[in-house]
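>> Question from a student workshop board

For tomorrow's exercise we were told to take the sequence and the ligand below, predict the bound structure, and bring the output to class. My setup keeps failing. Could a helper post the expected result so I can at least see what it should look like? The ligand is fe (iii) ion.
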Amino acid sequence: MQILKNIGYLATCKDEGEQGDIHYIKDAAIIWEGESIKWVGKQSVLPVKYSGEKVHDAQGRMVIPGLVDCHTHLAFGGWRPNEFEMRVRGESYLDIAKAGGGILSTVNATREATEEDLYNKASGFLEEIVKQGVTTVECKSGYGLSLSDELKILQVYQRLNEERSLHIISTFLGAHTIPPEYKGERESYIDLIIEEMIPAVAEKRLADFCDVFTEESAFNIEESRKILLAAKAAGLTPKLHADQLTSCGGAELAAEVEAASADHLEKISEQGITAMAKSGVVGVTLPLATLYTQEEPLNCRRLVEGGVEVAVATDFNPGSAPTYDLPLAMMLSCNQGRLTPAEVLKGATIYAAKAIKRDYKVGSIEEGKSADFAIIDAPDPNFWMYHYRGANCVASYVRGQKIT
Ligand code: NIG
Ligand code: FE
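>> Workshop helper replied:
Here is what the output should look like for this input. Compare the format with yours to find the bug.
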């Protein structure tokens, strides 16, 4: 049995009430045994039976659930700093992609990388990511775009999940773009996804989710529907990159196929909001992607007021979001997305856990859940987001073990 005491402000982030209800407890303590939480409450009413053999001291600081980054493209070859400069000079993300840059240049670099190369690189990212208090990371494939290269990326995630205490959740994103060898033959590539890739990924249990980049310039609504329904039939839960650059009905499709989440959503329609609210699809805001592509940020308040639960994630990838700073994404979701600090905290914990269907296990500090939490050097969420600085996380615990 272990105890974390002297918690000045404990944000439990229970999945009850509104987006801003973080169910905090002042002067709290947490008891856990092995990997799971046994008791949470005010320290003054701690039951005597929980004497706690090993004592940890939060020294009056804030404690939050381990953060959940529910949208990353963690494993990739190379980087694209040249495109960053081009965008800053005024070239658009789409024009750069059309000129042979963008996702396809990362596909080339990822195909050249070995599984070992990708594993080492992604491992290095995770070392840094956990220091921010992140304890669960969703990771997408999508830079392989051939059966063997997609499997190579997903095997990296499988190994990371087995070898690290962190929770790693994998998503197959074969429908990220059409690879060069299928140029002009998109139907054949879609057939390859449906007939070979999805069955192999499902059979080897290499992913829980299947994502599609739904966009006129990537996979249109009909193509996305076909892929997501095939994935669903194979046991993979749908997810979508939806309405990022154009309003093309991605959010509506997410509702129709009962996706776990629809992500980006900068161009979401009113009908899209209504449809997502009705079918309980989590909306994932990715403000680092809009920041780096100089697009108009998503007004998350529209979604919250429309009844959609909004999660916040980084979209970490070498093109549109080359940083994995989740607290920065949270701060931007306040300043640009118009969410309160309490709302973004729920967005990066329990709602993010819902976006990856892990809310039964992570995302809140409650009895029975995984003992994942972070000690933050701030008195409360408001002060944390207001006086934003990179290094507020003092310690983090995953499955009951202190990892930073
Ligand atoms: O989520 N939207 C598509 N995919 C990624 C970008 C990938 C890239 O630029 O390499 C995204 O923003
Ligand atoms: Fe993405």
